[in-house]
Design a protein that fits this description.
- There is one protein chain.
- With 216 residues, the protein is α+β, with helices and mostly antiparallel strands.
- The chain has a 5-stranded mixed beta sheet.
- The protein is built from 6 helices and 5 strands.
- The chain has a domain of 118 residues: Ribosomal Protein S8, Chain: A, domain 1.
- Helix 5 links the parallel strand 2 and strand 3.
């Protein structure tokens, strides 16, 4: 017991010697925290807590203001799309199908480049139409050529042919649509056809074609 007691006192004496050195600085006795006033609002409490804060000065400098951002109304795009949809439903507009996988177009005659944009937008009056649903390829070609010749003789400029989307065909592909584009692309047909495109939705969309004929 004597040995352990002596070692304990010796340890305290060593601590005193270390604390008496110049490199050890004892902090001042902490002061008691200031008592906050009662019944302060959040704004008053914030003001009381920051009363000793000194402004740096730069935060109040207004000489280098950033230009205000011009934030567009995100509803503008939605309103435009809604207007186009309303126009289409009311029969006034034509939705653009050129980005659709069903869309096709062709210009058998060089003159068609002048009219292809108006044709794809449905700007021409449809003067006759032909429905090839349910026909075989051989039957469809015969009726198609007769239809073109008949409308040429009548002086018609724009006709519509309904070929379907091939929903009931093998592989889901429209056989008649594929054949029609081949027939319209022949050198012989270029004497009668200026251009053709898939129709607007209101006229059958990807299941029909607009055909612009040459007038003699």
């Amino acid at each position: 017991m004597k040995t352990s007691t002596y070692q304990a006192f010796k340890s305290f004496s060593e601590l005193g010697r270390l604390l008496s050195g110049d490199r050890y600085i004892l902090s001042e006795k902490p002061t008691s925290p200031e008592r906050l006033p009662e019944n302060l609002t959040d704004a008053q409490l914030f003001e009381f807590s920051t009363r000793d804060v000194v402004p740096l000065g730069w935060s109040g400098n207004t000489s280098r203001k950033k230009p205000a951002l011009d934030i567009q109304n995100i509803l503008d795009g939605e309103n435009e799309e809604l207007r186009l949809l309303q126009d289409f439903v009311s029969g006034k507009g034509c939705l653009d199908l050129t980005a659709s996988g069903e869309y096709v177009e062709g210009i058998p005659h060089p003159e068609g480049r002048l009219w292809i944009d108006s044709l794809r937008r449905g700007k021409f009056s449809i003067q006759a139409h032909l429905d090839l649903h349910g026909l075989s390829v051989a039957e469809a070609r015969k009726i198609f050529e007769e239809f073109i010749q008949r409308n040429l003789s009548k002086g018609h400029g724009c006709v519509r042919i309904i070929h379907g989307r091939g929903n009931h065909s093998q592989g889901g592909q429209s056989t008649l649509k594929e054949q029609l584009t081949k027939w319209l692309g022949t050198r012989r047909m270029s004497r009668y056809v200026i251009a053709y495109t898939s129709a607007c939705l209101s006229d059958g969309g990807g299941g029909a074609l607009y055909i612009l004929l040459r007038r003699s």
